[in-house]
Amino acid sequence: MQQFDKSDVVIGISACLVGEKVRFDASNKPSNFCMNELGQHVTFKAFCPEVAIGLPIPRPTIRLIKKEDVIRVARPDGSGDVTDALAEYGKKVAKVAQSFSGYIFCAKSPSCGMERVKVYSEEGNSLKSDGVGAFAKEIMKANPLLPCEENGRLNDPIIRENFVARVYAYRQWQALVDSGLTKHKLMTFHSRYKYTVMSHDLIAYKDLGRLLARADLTLNDMAEQYISGLMSALTIKATRKKHANTLSHIQGYFSKHLSKLERSELCEQIESYRKGLVPLMVPLTLIRHYLMVHPKEYLAEQFYLNPYPDELRLRYGY
Predict the structure, then answer these.
(1) Same domain, yes or no, for 148 and 174?
(2) What is the largest CA-CA distance in the chain?
(3) Tell me: the pLDDT tens digits for 157-176?
(4) Does the global pTM surpass 0.90?
(5) Which of 113, 128, 155 is the last residue in one of the domains?
(6) DSSP state, residue 66
(7) Which run of H or E residues covers position 292?
(8) Distances (CA, A) of 263 to 244, 255, 268, 295
């Protein structure tokens, strides 16, 4: 499997999250995970849409305001409407983001929030928190497969791991396409993601297998449907039950090589993980050990065992 240098994995990010003092009050919202952990392994491209469209620092606050059935972005009194300017800048950055492997937005922002942004009435009353930032909306609409998350949600260890796993999966796909896509390469890619997809959605794994068996699709159509299905499956959170089921399938590869005591130990560790007594890294470490002692090329190529840099320690928290 292909390994990537820091410069190979590019992630778009709201500028305030990497320490730039660009918020309305000239402050920032630095993300410790982004700056001190993930940032050691990826390259961030920072954007502040408000500054980019000419708003000053500091500046009056803006919000999502519902006028009849249309959402606009303006100051609380309705003046200084910047909806169109933010949307146009979003479309511009969306083209650049085609080469990105992920994007991290600032939560609750009327420009960068990807979901659950508060919407107000023209009278200033708080309505539902179901809005989407005007800038973020354009990025996601133009790049529906791009893994996207918000800084606040990344504090959840499961969401954090899921996002990073999707980023690296998408980067692997981008590398595959750049290398020149063939049916053989597509089949190989799918085989290496077998256990990854299984740990998220077994039905999707079967559907993707059937898709690759079809003879009525062109390679481009098949590839387009495949990556769409893969990225959709990976957005489904893996659970302890799904992981344990996947680990049990992997265990079968060693059934003829392990002693009774070793098999029992691995079964116990998988069951302990299923019950929430140990983190995922415990049975995974044991499987990696057995893989070194009893090499299995097919397993060694599985992205499930090495989805991203170990240094991120994302599988220690759940």
Answers:
(1) no
(2) 74
(3) 999 999 999 999 999 999 99
(4) yes
(5) 155
(6) E
(7) helix 281-293
(8) 15, 7, 9, 16
